[in-house]
Amino acid sequence: MSDRVKLVTQRSEIEEKGDAWVMTWPRADERGAHFHTYGLLTPYFKGLQEGKLMGTRCTNPDCPIYHGKGELWLPPRADCPDCHQPMEWSAANAEGYIYTYTKVIRGGLGLEIETPYYQIDIKLDGVCTIVKSYLLNRDKEIKIGDKVRAVFRKGDEATNTCLDLAWELTE
Ligand SMILES: [Zn+2]
User: Fold this and answer.
1) Which residue from 72, 107, 102, 105 is spatially nearest to 87, judged by alpha carbons?
2) Average of pLDDT values for 33-50?
3) Cα–Cα distance, 83 to 89 (Å, whole number)
4) What's the 76 CA to ligand 1 centre distance in angstroms?
5) Alpha carbon 129 to its chain's center
6) Which among 13, 29, 114, 124 has most CB atoms closer than 10 A?
7) From CA 143, how far away is CA 117, in angstroms rounded?
8) Over the stretch 87-103, which tens digit does the pLDDT of each residue have?
9) 43 C-alpha to ligand 1 centroid (Å)
10) What residues are neighbours of ligand 1 (ion), with CB under 5 Å?
């Protein structure tokens, strides 16, 4: 067993359709591939390829909740859930701390992450949501509050899915 978590998956191919990415998901066995567009959330997936954590915030001054001063949502939303106006894209801080976690010993059907691994929730400064992801380290016990930084699977390593974002302990 390696001390770093590996994926058990295949790369999804990406095709550009205007501003949006359309991915081909090869995991649907003999029934064939599944095609899926990232649509207005494409900048998030492009950001992972560039080593950036792209989120969105509401900047509409008439928004009943955020009044034009929204914090970042991550994962992003294309439109604000409260005023339904387009959100603005911005890069998030890629370092934070473990808000909570679960150690996954046995995965469910279709799990694409080699077990055992830590499923972690991450709190980032300036981000109003909790990011759900996985930790690459698995050779020691972890605790709530441990500091982590984002790690990106890019280039030939990229799966072109949300699995291209992972986290590692900073200490
Ligand atoms: Zn809003």
Assistant:
1) 72
2) 93
3) 16
4) 13
5) 12
6) 124
7) 14
8) 999 999 999 999 999 99
9) 19
10) 58, 60, 63, 66, 80, 82-83
